[in-house]
Amino acid sequence: MTADHDRTHFHFQQDWFELIRPEWEQRTAHLRGRELRILEIGCFEGCSTTWILDNLMSHPNSVMTVIDTFEGGMEHQDDNGPDHPTDRYQLSTLKRRFDANVAKCPEVAKLNVMQARSDDALVALRQQRRRFDFIYIDASHVAIDVLHDAVMSWQMLDQGGLIVFDDYSWRGFIEDCYNPRTAVRAFIKCARPEVECIETESQLWVKRVPNCIPATPNPDPALYYWDKGTAKHVL
Question: Residue 217 and residue 147: Cα distance in Å, rounded?
Fold first, then answer.
């Protein structure tokens, strides 16, 4: 199955995904035709959603879940409010634009839309014991939110599955503590025994693999706790 390159029937005010689409076509080639359970956290107008529906959802048993408030993130807010002439994101019509775009996809019946904050929706999915093979994280770009989305998603990702972090190299905030890269690096450091990572121009692709670094108990009780001076330096 080849990628569907004709996207002219969709209408996107922001076509961010089109910039990375060639990379996706290459990196997801092995997934086409397979039975997949896909989760997308943050879908905006549906640019990536429609591509996934048209290219990765051909198997009759494949299912896709998307999570979005359709209110935009902190970086999308305009000081003058929605519908103001300077509001280039037109957030008040965002959900309507998303619905119109995904309705044009033949596989739209396999799509479940959760209009909610990701922290609430991911808890609900965990309670439902949902599992996924492919997860795309592109919701809030605030580091603490990205970290939450990463940890919660990891608990639902099957071995061999992929998590793609969008805007890994994005620096929308002067203070680095807010930027996505800070959160993703912290997550990767904790999940290191079970991850393989590939960094592209703006994203990080993470594959879940069998644990390759077994935990080794510390044999010296005198070293159980960090030295106070070292701990203060780290913080």
Answer: 27
pLDDT-based confidence at residue 232 (cuts at 50, 70, 90):
low
Residue whose pair of structure tokens reads 């035709």 in the numeric block: 33
CA separation (Å) from 26 to 23, 180, 215? 5, 24, 35
DSSP per position, 48-109? HHHHHHHHT--STT-EEEEEE-SS--GGG--TT-TTSTT-TT-GGGHHHHHHHHHTTSTTGG
Tokens of 47: 């640019």
CB-based contact 110:62 (threshold 8 Å): yes
Instruction: Kindly report which listed range (75-84, 134-143, 203-212) carries the lowest average pLDDT score.
Output: 75-84
pLDDT for 76 equals 56
C-alpha span between 103 and 162 (Å, rounded): 26
Rounded Cα distance between 12 and 47, Å, is 7
The C-alpha atoms of residue 33 and residue 164 are separated, in whole angstroms, by: 20
Give counts: helices (H), strands (E), the chain: 7, 7
DSSP 8-state code for residue 45: T
What does DSSP assign to residue 15? -
